[in-house]
Specification:
With 810 residues, the chain is an alpha/beta fold. The protein is built from 28 helices and 38 strands.
């Protein structure tokens, strides 16, 4: 029999747990939901657009009442739970409904704070928390003209903006010297005030409300301790929230400011969980959706019986949902010891940017007027990335670093609805915004699957994320680690960590132990998982060829006419007449239509039919060749120049160095293709400065370069260090390769990987830490035992049927 799960509070956090459970453990529980509000589950953060008249209630529904029926969830709408009997494991609703439970989930949210001034109980004094409050404000706006909003924080300003949109004359009263003082510093707060004043909003700063005066006709005025009163017909109190913990407290659960929970979202009674604004976790109560969704995922994971996830707290970021006002803040940005502020200010353009850096890491940021790089700064903050290497260009944003993703974000807000965001799939801004609001989308993946935007080359992902943030206000998903794919909520890094800590060695174990949502994964996660397994456990994990892309499965490059190209390895680009003869013979024997020198100094036999592959390989193996891996996420070639052996300028033997590097590293699998080059002098004829690992000879030895890319997005290498001997070159190359193999995400080239983790980090691990370097190099060498088995040799003698045309094989 199924266990019984009861949720109290059908808000955003609680219902997220139920949605997750529907996906990862649909048959585990009989679920009953009690909600005090008389609707299904709606998107509370869209109340502001509802108030401003930009959305209807239907538009902001996340799960309508039909959803509960369709998913077999019993829904008691409009029923408040007033008591929990923990001994008898039952809950009691105000209308007399009783329900028993095996597990109870509290998601009761918050109460708005009401300041204890005379007159606060008048019906035209409203708070701003739910649909009922919006209805009250809309009704008041139809019969009254003058509103006073108490509270110049996020909610107060959104309420004030909404009321202005309804035609009211609005004054915002704020106790502090500047607006949104918890999210903005004084300069940004002043910019914000100025911009809202230009739109007609009025302000009374540093004003303490003392009384709300009303007569039989309604509210008359609001009085202040400091002086003249303000006329008002409607008063909105938006001065903060406090966790709704009364029910939990009454049930004897341990509460402090909120219901205290552990990292598994359990209260002090292990059969009772709590999520959302009602909880206090490690001393912190959260009031934004992002952390609550993270809590919900952990909670669902635990309720489903998997128990491998922990919630360890969140860093949050803020955006204001007032059309045309761009502000963004995250982390700690008030002046503090050891924190340096990097500031840019252009009053004429209304742009202000402050990035707070401590020990070369971003700890907070405030952006006003140009918020384009908000999500990028937030990601750097969350990942703890060292910004030492690009600190001088930090203020100019990610575009300045050469990454196209987030460039020119402010434009996104200003773009017309018809503006095309995703060029690959022809998706416009308006379609994306509509899908986000109509379908209640929260993540980039949601947008991809609903609209196809960012689903192809992905270069518009940054713009789509900006649209998500701009449309939804909360920057909740952008800063969060992104899931690998739709089959899981875990990020690449989390999956990799779980493979390591839980000793998983097969795809099946990953799917079963990490609660994969699909039976066998998809074309995105299978190759990545296969790589993570074999790179983590080179001795124990078995390579799953079915999880590989076609080129790797076929050990050759598939071309546009369906034939293959075969590139034998030619060590360091050096060959012999005998080898050339063998290649020519193979080309003639198999009537290879095209023979071409590749960009990496190899000979490419193009136009080989699938069924000919084993024969071609067999003959090449007999002539002493091994696979060039020109088709794989693996070491490709090591390009060399002629160096000191022949060249007038050469200072070192680049050819020998290249050959030795290639012999050491061939066959290794890497997150993405990996190219090397060695030049015999700084003239750099082998173009080492656009390779993943480049070596340039200098008078005193060798200069090592990393992170170059000659592809679509050209990137010159960073200089790693200088070394003296060829032995050192090899040790550093092995250590660098191993660090990349162990830590980069699948399909991440060295260039974006280094931009993500920082060159300093790579230097720390490979250059500064001599012991660490040796250990990395040893691990690389150990992994090569399995790697250097030539697939061509094997397949030229075994499983040849795999290369037969289907008709013949069948
Ligand atoms: C106007 C507004 C704008 C916002 N804008 C943003 C934003 O831009 N970005 C952002 O990240 N966040 C924003 N938020 C905050 C965000 O909406 C909340 O953090 C989130 O909704 C909290 O989720 P929750 O499930 O904890 O609580 P809620 O969503 O409030 O759900 C709690 C539910 O429990 C019900 N309930 C309580 N007690 C009982 C009981 N005893 N029995 C039955 N039902 C009960 C309540 O009626 C309520 O429906 C905004 C909030 C408001 C009000
Ligand atoms: S890089 Fe220097 S050594 Fe190599 S070929 Fe060019 S000039 Fe000669």
């Amino acid at each position: 029999m199924k266990e019984k799960l009861v949720l109290v509070g059908n808000g955003m956090a609680g219902m997220k747990v139920i949605e997750e459970l529907q996906t990862i453990a649909p048959d585990k529980y009989d679920i009953t939901v009690f909600g005090a509000e008389p609707y299904g589950n709606y998107n509370r953060i869209m109340l502001s657009p509802l108030l401003a008249g930009e959305k209807s209630l239907d538009d902001i529904m996340l799960n309508s009442e039909d959803w509960y029926d369709a998913h077999g969830v019993t829904f008691h709408k409009g029923k408040e739970i007033i008591e929990v009997d923990r001994i008898g494991k039952r809950v009691f609703a105000a209308d007399g409904t009783v329900e028993s439970y095996d597990r109870l989930l509290l998601g009761t949210g918050s109460h708005p704070v009401v300041i204890p001034v005379p007159g606060r109980d008048h019906p035209d004094v409203v708070t701003y928390r739910d649909v009922k409050d919006v209805d009250s404000m809309l009704a008041a706006s139809r019969k009254h003209r003058k509103a006073v909003v108490i509270g110049g924080g996020l909610l107060g300003l959104e309420a004030a903006y909404g009321l202005m949109q309804q035609g009211m004359d609005v004054t915002v009263v704020h106790l502090m010297p500047w607006l949104m003082e918890r999210q903005l510093d004084q300069t940004a707060g002043n910019y914000l005030q100025q911009s809202l004043e230009e739109r007609g909003m009025k302000f009374r700063m540093e004003a303490q409300t003392s009384e709300i005066v009303a007569d039989e006709n309604g509210i008359e005025k609001v009085c202040f301790k400091e002086g003249p009163e303000e006329d008002a017909d409607l008063v909105v109190m938006a001065v903060g929230i406090k966790p709704n913990k009364e029910l939990a407290e009454k049930a004897g659960l341990y509460c402090d400011r909120g219901v205290v929970v552990s990292d598994t979202m359990q209260t002090f009674d292990p059969s009772i969980y709590a999520v959302g604004e009602c909880v206090q976790h490690r001393g912190v109560c959260y009031g934004l959706v992002a952390p609550l969704f993270e809590q919900a995922r952990v909670c669902a994971n635990h309720l489903a019986g998997y128990g491998f996830r922990l919630y360890q707290g969140s860093v949050t970021s803020t955006k204001l949902k007032v059309t045309g006002v761009d502000l963004y803040s995250a982390g700690e940005f008030q002046d503090a010891d050891g924190v340096e502020n990097i500031v840019y200010q252009d009053p004429a353009a209304g742009v202000y940017k402050k990035i707070c850096v401590k020990d070369d890491r971003i700890v907070g940021t405030v952006l006003y007027g140009d918020t384009g790089d908000g999500t990028w700064y937030f990601q750097l903050l969350r990942d703890g990335t060292s910004v030492a290497d690009f600190r001088d260009s930090l203020l100019f944003g990610q575009a300045h670093l050469g990454d196209s993703g987030h460039g020119g974000v402010n434009q996104v807000a200003n773009l017309a609805d018809e503006a095309q965001i995703c060029d690959c799939n022809g998706v416009c801004k308006g379609d994306i915004v509509q899908a986000i609001t109509k379908e209640g989308l929260f993540t980039l993946d949601d947008v991809k699957s609903h609209t196809k935007a960012a689903a192809s080359c992905g270069s518009c992902s940054g713009l789509v994320e900006q649209l998500l943030a701009a449309t939804m206000g909360g920057d909740y998903e952008a800063g969060k680690a992104k899931p690998m794919c739709g089959c899981t909520d875990m990020s690449h890094d989390q999956v990799r960590e779980a493979i390591r800590t839980e000793g998983l060695t097969t795809l099946r174990q990953v799917f079963d132990n990490l609660a994969w949502k699909t039976d066998d994964g998809c074309e995105k996660c299978r190759p990545a998982l296969n790589y993570y397994l074999i790179s983590t456990w080179p001795d124990d994990a078995e390579d799953d060829s079915q999880a590989r892309f076609v080129n790797e499965r076929m050990h050759a490059n598939i071309q546009k006419d369906g034939t293959f190209s075969v590139v034998p390895r030619i060590w360091g680009g050096v060959t012999t007449p005998q080898q050339l003869r063998s290649i020519a013979e193979v080309a003639e024997k198999y009537e290879v239509p095209t023979v071409k020198i590749t960009g990496g100094q190899r000979i490419d036999l193009l136009g080989v039919k699938k069924e000919q592959l084993p024969g071609v390989w067999g003959d090449l193996s007999d002539a002493g060749f091994v696979s060039g891996h020109a088709y794989g996420k693996a070491l490709r070639t090591v390009k060399t120049c002629v160096g000191s052996e022949w060249c007038r300028f050469g200072t070192q033997d680049s050819t020998t160095c290249g050959i030795e590097l290639e012999e050491m590293t061939w066959g290794t699998w890497t997150p993405h293709k990996f190219k090397m080059a060695v030049s015999g002098c700084p003239r750099n004829c082998a173009e080492a400065s656009i390779k993943d690992f480049g070596v340039v000879a200098i008078e005193s030895g060798w200069e090592l370069h990393v992170g170059g890319n000659g592809g679509v997005k050209i990137r010159a290498t960073d200089v790693l260090c200088r070394v003296e001997t060829m032995e050192e070159v090899k040790e550093y190359a092995a250590a660098f390769l191993q660090l990349y193999r162990e830590e980069a995400r699948y399909l991440e080239r060295t260039a974006p990987w280094i931009e993500r983790v920082g060159l300093s980090y790579v230097k720390d691990r490979v250059v500064e830490d001599a012991e660490g370097r040796k250990t990395l190099a040893e691990r690389f060498d150990a992994s090569q035992k399995q790697a250097q088995e030539d697939p061509w040799k094997f397949y030229s003698k075994n499983h040849q049927e795999k290369f037969e045309p289907l008709r013949k094989a069948g």
